[in-house]
Structure formats: C-alpha cells, structure tokens
Design goal:
The complex is a heterodimer. Chain A is mainly α. Chain A has 13 helices and no strands. The two termini of chain A are 24 Å apart. Chain B folds into two domains: 67 residues, no CATH class; 218 residues, MetI-like fold, CATH 1.10.3720.10. In chain B, helix 8 crosses helix 10 and helix 10 runs parallel beside helix 11. The two termini of chain B are 18 Å apart. The chains are: A mainly alpha, B mainly alpha. At the A-B interface, helix 1, helix 11, helix 12 and helix 13 of A face helix 6 and helix 7 of B.
C-alpha cells in the first residue's frame, strides 16, 4: 500500500516536471528567438552566424542588424537545442566578461530569493492562523485584525521610517514587508479563512464536532490540501515583491535571481545569464503551479 | 453615474468616491482642453521644458514686494518691485543696501535678504506657491516646480501620457484576455489539442511572476529597439502592451469560467437550435450580457496596475520620462526641493487609485448580481 502510494507520487511528480519542462522549453524558445534579434547579443547567440555574414561584408554600406529570425530559424533552433541539451547537465555556459560558469552562481541566487520568499510565506501563514483564532472575538477582529490586514508596502515603509533609529534587523523588515505588503497577507488570510470556514461548516465536520470529536482531525486532509494549494498560489506574488526589494536594496545580501537578471542587463548586457536565470525561474514556478493545480483538482474530486 | 457615486456602503466610501470622481473629471477636462488656466499648459511647451519666466509674476497691488522662502539657504527673501527703487551694494550687485525706511530696517534686523526684481531671473525663485497669477493673467493653480515649470501643466502632461499607456495596456489586455477566454471556454471540445496548448501557455504565463515577465520584456525591448534608434515613447507603448498581455490570463480565466457555466444553459442551446451563428452567440449574447461587468471590473483593476507598474519601472531604474511614475520618482529623489509637488502628486495618485478601486468594486458587485 505504502509502496503503491509512493510510486503514484513519484509518477505524478515526474509527469508534472516533464510537462513543465516541455512548456518552459516552448516559451523559452520564443524568448531565445527574441534575444537572438538583439543586436548586441552576439556573445550569447549568433556570433558564428554573424561571422558567416561578415565574409561578404560591405564596409561602405551603413551598419545594420544583419540577423534575420525568419531565415535564421533553423540555425537558432539548432543553437537552442544545443543549449537545452547542455542545460540538462546543468551547463548553462559561461559569463562572457570573466568566463565564470553561470551554473556556479545562478542556483545560489535562486536559493537566496526562495529563502526570503519562503520565510515571508511562513510569516504570513503564522499571522493568518493567529488572526483566524483571534477573529473569533469580534472586538479583537474589529480593532486588531482588520486594520492590520489593510497594511500595505506604503504603511510598512512609514513604520520603518518611524522605527529606523531603533535599529531593527533589516532581514526582519524585508521578510515582514514581503509577508504583509501589497495585499499579500490580506489575500492569503481571506482565502485561508474562507476555506477554513467552508470546510468546518461541512456535514462531516459538524457531525464530528457535535459527537465530541475534533473536527480538525476529520477534515485534516482537505485542510492540508487547501493550505498547500493556496500557499503555492501566493509564491509568484511574493517573489515579485522580492525582485523589487532586491533591486531597491542594490543587491548585497539580498542579491537574488531577480537582481541577477536586472544587473546582467544594466551595464554590459549578459544575455546568457539573463536567459538562463529566466529559464530556471519559469521552470520552477511552472512546476509549483502545476503541483498546486493538481492538488486543487484532487480536492475537487475529493469533494465530488 | 449616481448609482456609482453612491454604491459604497459606508459614508466614508461615498465621500471618497465622490471626491475621487471629481479629481478624475477635473484631470480629464484639463487634459482634453490643454489646461485652460494657464498659457503654460500646452503639453508641448511643458515637454520642451519652457520655464515660467520670472518677470511674469504679478505683484499684489497693495504690496511692493513678493515674499519667498529660500529653503536651500534657509532665509526669507523679499523681492522688491521696480517702484521700490532699491540701491545696490556695488560690491555685490545682487545684494541691496538696506533702504532707510522703517519697514526695511526692521526686516534687515530680522536678517531678511533683499533682491531686486531686475535681478530676479538670476535667482532661483521656484517653486512658486500655488494660486499665483502671471502678468498675462494665467493662473498657476499648483504653482511651479523647482525647474520653473507650471506644476499643473507638468502633471497634466504626465497624466495624458499615462492615459495613453493605460489605453495600450487595456487594448492588449482585453484583446488577449477575451480571445483566449472565448477560445478556451467555447471551442475547447472542437479543437482539443490546439486549445490544450493555448491553455497550458496561459498557465505558464500565469504561474510565473508578472514582474519577472516584465523585467524580461523590458530587457528585450530595450535590447532590440535602442540600437535601432527607436524612441522612448514607442518603447513605453510596447512595454505596456506586453504588460496587458501578461496580465490577460486573469481575464481569460474569468471569461472561460463564464462560458463553461453558460454554454450548456438552455438559452444558448436554444440560440444554437435557432441557427444563430457562434460569433453572435459569443459577442451579442454571452459577452455583452454576462461578461461585460466582469470585463469592466478587470479593466479598472488593470488601470490601477498600470499606475503601480509605471512607478515600478522607475524603481527598477529603467528611466522613462514624462509619465506619472517618472514625475513621482523625480520629485521623490529630490524630495527636499519638491515637497509640495511630491505630496500633491501623491494625493492625485491616491484619488486616481481610489477611483479605480471603487470602480472595480462597483463592477464586481454588478458582475455578481
């Protein structure tokens, strides 16, 4: 039984991952073609093609972008396939200015971003669960929960300016801002609260409660699935906030994958780094999204 | 209109809706009429950064001076009109010898600085306070900026540009959102494979953070268009077009759900049996009567997102000029010299977003009913 469950889970994860790789590859190909058109992306792609053109280069003619995506499509597709094959072995190529392996820093960047995103979601979850119980008392709900939920980035910045001289830990402020700002907490709390109430008002939960059992044990599977599904749907939003924090703070210890993409473009564009970072991010988020969606479908089947 | 103004449950909400609607209407009128309050309101003139000339300041009839606080050097300045016939200090032509009148002596004791009207153009008098008239009789409703532009005209020009960007975003958002929503919702059974690919593409777009897509879009757009010498305006239009496209999955999802819900309803079956074609069923019946409020709700939401994204572009240091976000960023960066313009713009943006928030809520409630 346990083995069967494990195999089915592995099968599900494998198919989900394969699906996301397929679609990420499809979308990334479009991005790859667009990057190919960029006139200064030769160090990443199309350098060889340009050399071919250069054999018949007329120096008296005005300088034009000679790359043509329609005629060069077979070449671009070949290059992209080669890049994909290398990417399977985690070889994303090298950065052109210092020849450093892209894979040596890209995963570290991703870990930094995901670390703050995860911590922010844990904080948001903790606050949401706390508020879920506190809001049972109407006075506390009116005077504490509701005003707190309306906090935005703007409020957080104001609070930071007021408390700046106290010397609060910057990490704490960043995580708190990500968890609370731009309506993340409000959305998260509302979704969790609605689902919590709808599950606990179901017949079997009510029956368990009236019979003296703990309704949370009876509804645990549904609650867990819903929690995972809602949490996964919040990750892209918090990640978006993290990119802003990374760029706004100018890198440093908050230099994650968003900052890497941004920084790689600002001075001397490093399209190899930009493309690899984007590919990895899209793959990660698509996989998370598909897993969450599958859980949501399971939940619908469970309810059906 | 009245329904919209009074739709909020609370009195506070009603008041906010009314004020924000007035602010929006005011700006729409000012944008359309090229600011009738001042000749410096021609958007072209402001974009050319033609400053308000100092000698155009009209002095109050009962006063022979114009007071101004020099924030930079923390001192009060009295600018004397020509009639005051000031006597200059020969060592420093800008500085005046104190005129031996009781009033000026008193001011001198209080360490006031005197400046001749003839020399006024040498001195940075800006920003001028709100509600001042120029000699030509133009009213500077919000005064001027530190660089000498009429503030209302500057804001009007940026509002106008932001409205254009909103239009591009909306066009792209509605086009892609409606098309993909209709295709997935109505034609899913007919073109299983193609719709499957479209559905998954939308899922991939939806699953990745919008800001990441936009970061990539800006990089590609700048990478391609800047070497081709294509200007900022075209780049911005494309960027916001992409913004509409990448935001469209939310609208697509809503329309798909509506179609899924409605396509098996009796009236749709009856229309099909009557021989009404698909285009008519989709556009004249389902979209018009069942999805219109949802579309407007999403459109209001996306307009508010345009304002935030405009500012986000500045935070990400992709410097585009002339939009509301860039003006806000400019005022914010030099906030000590732009306190009044900064807070004015924040207030205006607050009312813009409030209007869009209440519009979204209004259309959402209509969509539910």
């Amino acid at each position: 039984m346990y083995l069967k469950k494990s195999l089915s889970l592995l099968k599900f994860l494998f198919f989900t991952f394969t699906k996301s790789v397929l679609f990420t590859s499809f979308i990334s190909f479009i991005v790859y073609c667009l990057l190919y058109i960029c006139p200064n992306s030769d160090s990443f792609i199309g350098g060889e093609k340009l050399d071919e053109y250069d054999l018949s280069f007329d120096f008296s003619a005005p300088e034009v972008n000679q790359k043509n995506i329609i005629t060069d499509l077979p070449f671009v597709a070949g290059e992209y396939s080669q890049w994909l094959l290398n990417a399977i072995t985690l070889d994303f190529g090298v950065r052109s200015d210092d020849q450093e392996e892209i894979s040596s820093f890209i995963f570290d960047d991703l870990i930094i971003s995901m670390k703050f995103v995860s911590l922010a979601i844990i904080v948001a979850l903790f606050i949401s669960i706390l508020f879920l119980f506190v809001s049972k008392v109407s006075t506390l709900s009116r005077w504490i929960v509701q005003p707190f939920l309306t906090l935005s980035f703007f409020h957080v910045v104001l609070i930071y300016l007021i408390l700046e001289h106290i010397g609060l830990n910057m990490n704490f402020i960043v995580i708190f801002s990500l968890a609370v700002g731009s309506g993340v907490l409000y959305d998260y709390y509302t979704l969790l609260s609605d689902e919590h109430h709808s599950i606990l008002e179901k017949d079997y939960s009510m029956f368990a409660f009236n019979a003296g059992y703990n309704p949370y044990i009876f509804a645990s599977k549904e609650l867990q699935l819903q929690l995972i599904s809602i949490t996964a749907s919040r990750i892209p939003i918090v990640f978006g906030g993290m990119i802003l924090v990374e760029v706004f703070s100018g890198g440093g210890k908050y230099a994650g994958i968003g900052f890497r993409i941004w920084e790689s473009f600002t001075d001397n564009p490093e399209y190899g780094v930009i493309f690899s970072a984007t590919f990895v991010s899209i793959l990660l988020f698509t996989t998370i999204f598909l897993i969450a969606e599958r859980l949501r479908n399971n939940l619908i089947n469970l309810r059906g | 209109m009245l329904k919209f103004l009074l739709h909020s449950d609370s009195l506070f909400g009603k008041v906010l809706t009314i004020i924000s609607t007035i602010v929006i209407m005011f700006f729409i009128i000012v944008v359309i009429t090229d600011n009738p309050f001042s000749q410096y309101t021609y958007i072209d003139e402001v974009e050319e950064e033609r400053p308000v000339s100092m000698d155009q300041i009209q002095f109050d009839s009962d006063r022979s001076y114009f007071d101004y606080i020099d924030k930079e050097n923390n001192r009060n300045i009295y600018i004397l009109s020509k009639e005051s016939k000031p006597i200059f200090n020969p060592k420093n032509p800008k500085e005046l010898k104190v005129i031996a009148t009781e009033m000026f002596s008193l001011m001198a004791l209080q360490e006031y600085y005197f400046l001749s009207i003839d020399k006024i153009s040498d001195y940075n008098i800006h920003p001028i306070k709100p509600l001042k008239y120029t000699k030509q009789g133009d009213l500077l409703i919000l005064g001027t900026t530190s660089s000498g532009n009429d503030l209302l005209s500057t804001i009007t020009a940026s509002v106008s540009k932001t409205f254009v960007l909103m239009f591009y975003t909306m066009a792209s958002f509605l086009f892609f959102g409606i098309i993909s929503g209709v295709l997935i919702g109505y034609y899913r059974e007919r073109f299983v494979r193609s719709i499957g690919i479209l559905e998954f593409t939308i899922k991939t777009i939806e699953s990745t953070p919008l800001i990441l897509w936009m970061l990539l879009s800006v990089i590609i757009i700048q990478g391609i268009l800047i070497p081709l010498g294509i200007g900022e305006d075209s780049q911005l239009k494309l960027i916001f077009g992409f913004f509409g496209f990448f935001s469209s999955p939310s609208l697509s999802k809503i329309i798909t759900n509506k179609f899924e819900m409605l396509k098996s309803q009796e009236f749709v079956v009856a229309l099909k049996l009557l021989g009404v074609n698909d285009r008519r069923i989709i556009f004249s019946h389902i979209l018009r009567h069942f999805c219109f409020s949802s579309i407007l709700f999403q459109a209001s939401y996306i307009c508010a997102q345009v304002l935030f994204f405009d500012f986000t572009l500045q935070v990400l240091r992709f410097s585009y000029h002339g939009t509301l976000g860039s003006e806000l960023h400019t005022f914010y960066v030099d906030k000590y010299n732009h306190q009044f313009p900064l807070y004015t713009l924040i207030f205006i943006l607050f009312f813009f977003t409030t209007f869009l928030f209440y519009s979204a809520r209004f259309f959402e409630s209509k969509a539910k009913t």
